[in-house]
Design a protein that fits this description.
Elements lengths: L6 H8 L3 H8 L7 H13 L6 H6 L6 E6 L5 H16 L3 E6 L4 H11 L6 E4 L3 H6 L3 H8 L4 E4 L9 E5 L1 H14 L5 E5 L5 H13 L7 E4 L3 H14 L4 E4 L2 H13 L9 E4 L3 H4 L7 E4 L2 H16 L10 E4 L2 E3 L7
Parallel strand pairs: 1-2, 1-3, 3-4, 4-5, 5-11, 6-7, 6-8, 8-9, 9-10
Antiparallel strand pairs: 10-12
Helix pairs in contact: 1-2, 2-3, 5-14, 6-8, 9-10, 11-12
């Protein structure tokens, strides 16, 4: 039997987005009381309910979960997947993995396919394009089909689902404070993901620790050549004493440009990178890095999803979990 009305049809009648309707129905603080009241009144009038086909499909579990990864070339996500696979195997679950390749369109295609009901739940780190364009209607489509969703890593946007990520803001605030405590005054940030939520949080943490905006030094661009030019300015013109690198690309560029311009690490500049420990230890000198515990993120994401699938979490309010990072000091921060 077909619903009297769907989320998309409600949104069309109200001339708002699907996400606005879903947020209103889930009492999101992002939606004004007036809009929420309009949505709920219309939903009640048309006897809206979550898609009954999905509810019927969920009456018997498939023993399978879907995992959407934005970029498999990124070693962080590869390690998260490792944790997901290990925990899912222990729980007796099969994992179907999809790669969005940082594309909103591909992510939409994947989520549309997953609404067919052949998975019990979905783990997703949204693509860069999704994050940048702030288009999340396809994710609300999963909820409309009563499919449990857990967001991992890229979680800094309003969405009524369980989330697990790291303490991005606090990590860079603590790292900046530590370098300042060692007597360094000119500390910069290099970042190629400034447009993503996690990147914005890392910049915010760095800024929180500064005594004055006069001490703010940043090289930010998603374009390699532009980022390279800005990092050279930090090194050669601003002559920063330390650089916090917010991602793999910026870390490698800082190392390469320091070498090319005769700037010694750690004698002339201290460097902290957001990269995997296996790579950090192989560099010469080895680089101090932020340990993000990606396998733990993957394992705990599965735990959250399983609890939702098995209805162990009776509270409908989404859970936000944080995996706390650890700064690992190697040769690049020797004083």
């Amino acid at each position: 039997m077909k619903n009297k009305i769907t989320l998309k049809e409600l949104a069309k009648l109200l001339n708002v987005s699907v996400s606005t309707v879903s947020k209103a129905l889930h009492d999101s603080s992002e939606i004004s009381p007036k809009t929420a009241e309009r949505v709920k009144e219309l939903a009640k009038l048309h006897n809206y309910r979550p898609n009954p086909i999905a509810v019927n499909l969920k009456s018997s579990k498939s023993g399978t979960i879907g995992v959407i990864i934005p970029n498999i070339a990124n070693s962080f996500f590869a390690s998260v997947l490792w944790g997901i696979e290990a925990k899912a195997q222990k729980a007796g679950l099969q994992v179907i993995t999809y790669i969005s390749d940082e594309s909103l369109e591909r992510e939409q295609q994947i989520t549309d396919m997953l609404t067919s009901g052949f998975v019990d739940g979905v783990l997703i780190a949204v693509s860069e394009e999704t994050n940048h364009k702030k288009q999340y209607d396809h994710l609300f489509g999963l909820i409309d089909y009563n499919i449990p969703v857990v967001l991992y890593d890229r979680v800094s946007f309003d969405f009524p689902a369980d989330k697990i990520g790291i303490d991005d803001e606090q990590t860079f605030e603590d790292a900046t404070n530590l370098l300042q405590a060692k007597g360094l005054k000119k500390i910069g940030v290099a970042i190629s993901i400034h447009h993503l939520g996690v990147g914005k949080l890392r910049i915010k943490g760095y800024r929180n620790a500064l005594a004055s905006m006069d001490d703010f030094y940043i090289a930010n661009s998603s374009k390699p050549e532009t980022l390279k030019t800005k990092i050279k300015k930090l090194l050669l013109e601003d002559k920063v004493e330390a650089i916090l690198c917010a991602d793999f690309e910026s870390t490698m560029l800082v190392y390469r440009l320091a070498y090319e311009n005769g700037i010694r690490i750690p004698e002339d500049i201290k460097v902290i990178g957001f990269i995997q420990g296996g790579v950090a230890k192989l560099l010469t000198p080895s680089i101090s890095y932020v340990e993000q515990f990606p396998e733990q993120i993957g394992e705990e994401a599965v735990d959250l999803l399983v609890d939702r699938i098995e209805k162990k979490l009776t509270d409908e309010k989404p859970i936000n979990k944080t995996v706390f990072t650890k700064l690992m000091h190697l040769e690049s921060t020797v004083f």
